[in-house]
Specification:
Blueprint: E1 7-9, H1 13-20, E2 27-30, H2 38-45, E3 50-51, H3 60-67, E4 73-76, E5 89-91, H4 100-104, H5 107-112, H6 117-143, E6 149-156, E7 159-163, H7 166-174, E8 178-179, H8 183-187, E9 192-195, H9 198-205, E10 210-213, H10 225-230, E11 249-252, E12 256-258, H11 282-293, E13 310-311, E14 319-321, H12 326-334, E15 358-361, E16 364-367, E17 376-378
Parallel strand pairs: 1-4, 2-3, 4-5, 6-8, 6-10, 10-11, 12-14
Antiparallel strand pairs: 1-17, 2-17, 6-7, 7-9, 11-13, 15-16
Helix pairs in contact: 2-12, 6-11
């Protein structure tokens, strides 16, 4: 299976899987408009990685990925996003896997192309331990407090979607929350309920302790409290008593976004890290969510680690990360401060699978251990 030269990737999610395997240097071609990783941004902006944009209705990306001299594999998905139309295409569909940890386990699939199966097994083992350890800690907090609920919501073109996908339910439960679901929808095999009534939506939201909003905002860096709430037909940000639960938390998944700078002439967008690293790092997602729910008990992820959620009612705005953050992020990985970290040759005994993990929670040390748009091509050897 492994080959000797290169690999092409149609979504930004695979970037993190490679980084966690210590294989960032294998990336050879990237569409930078959707990449969040500060260190990949640094490489593409300094032209150490080749770049190619993708214009709707053209084959520019496909032509480049399909003929690039260093590319042997193009990671696409079940929708053929960024496919080259050649025998280099390989379906990488982690974002479609239903479970939080199941999505992360796709690191084993990626590792096969680089003879890094042992390293992938170590990473996933760490991820399982980290996720389950946090869940155990939050379960104890939940047992000692009044039950808290959570819901995932978004709005598009007059329709509100209340999503209860498996991984979202798992994240809520792991954070010590009870996920909102709809029995009728689940019985019909659906993991979402759709509403068109503002009042019906608000009646539900008023019963929820933690609302997680996924509504798309084009100008996300300027999506302030008023803008975000208005998208859910909450007109007065100073008085949400008719729409949200008193004392509740209102989060968005755009805590970290990329800047708009690339070495291409066309402008980029502020892409969310949520669509990139969150799939490979569910334990870090859970740690960040748990901190938002239990801020006095669960520590915030360290500087240089991804933070996915922002507290809209508290006035939080997205943090913009560019290439200037690469040294901070690299230091966090090298110092192993991001809960579960990239598996480096220097910190792993593959034979004994020697895994260590430290996460601070309420004074307790816990020990144990491609998604959207076109992205990258990487060398396999």
């Amino acid at each position: 299976m492994p080959s000797g030269s290169g690999h092409a990737r149609p979504g930004s999610t695979p970037v993190t899987f490679l980084e966690m395997l210590g294989l960032r240097d294998k990336i050879k071609l990237v569409n930078p408009t959707s990449v969040h990783s500060p260190c990949v941004q640094e490489l593409e902006e300094s032209e150490q990685i080749d770049t190619q944009g993708s214009t709707w209705g053209t084959t520019d990306w496909a032509d480049r990925a399909g003929t690039h001299a260093e590319v042997e594999v193009v990671f696409t998905d079940s929708w053929s996003t960024g496919a080259s139309g050649t025998d280099r295409d390989v379906v990488f569909d982690a974002s479609s896997d239903p479970g939080a940890l199941a999505r992360a386990e796709w690191i084993k699939f990626v590792s096969v192309f680089f003879n890094e199966e042992e390293r992938a097994n170590v990473y996933f083992g760490r991820e399982q331990v980290a996720f389950n350890t946090i869940a155990t800690s939050t379960a104890a907090l939940a047992d000692a407090n009044t039950e808290k609920s959570c819901i995932w919501v978004s709005h598009y073109d007059g329709t509100y979607t209340l999503s209860f996908s498996t991984y979202k339910q798992e994240l809520c439960v792991g954070a010590g929350l009870t996920p909102w679901t709809d029995a009728t929808a689940l019985a019909a095999g659906s993991y979402a309920k759709y509403l068109t009534s503002d009042s019906e939506l608000h009646a539900i939201l008023k019963t929820i302790d933690v609302v997680i909003d996924e509504t798309y905002h084009f100008d996300v860096v300027n999506a302030d409290k008023a803008t975000v709430l208005a998208a859910l037909s909450i007109s007065d940000p100073a008085d949400t008593s008719d729409s949200l639960k008193s004392g509740g938390v209102f989060l968005r998944t755009d805590g970290h976004v990329t800047d708009k700078v690339t070495n291409l002439t066309d402008a980029s967008t502020n892409s969310l890290d949520w669509y990139e690293s969150a799939i490979a790092r569910p334990a870090l997602v859970l740690a960040d969510l748990a901190h938002k729910v239990w801020p006095s008990d669960i520590s915030v992820p360290a500087s240089g680690c991804s933070r996915y959620f922002r507290d809209v009612l508290a006035g939080d705005m997205p943090t913009v990360n560019g290439k200037d953050k690469c040294s901070t992020w690299s230091a966090a990985e090298n110092e192993q401060t991001c809960l579960n970290n990239a598996v480096l040759a220097s910190d792993v005994d593959f034979t004994n699978a020697n895994i260590t993990l430290v996460y601070e929670s309420a004074g307790v040390s816990l020990a144990g251990a491609f998604a959207a748009f076109l992205v990258a091509a990487v060398a396999l050897a």
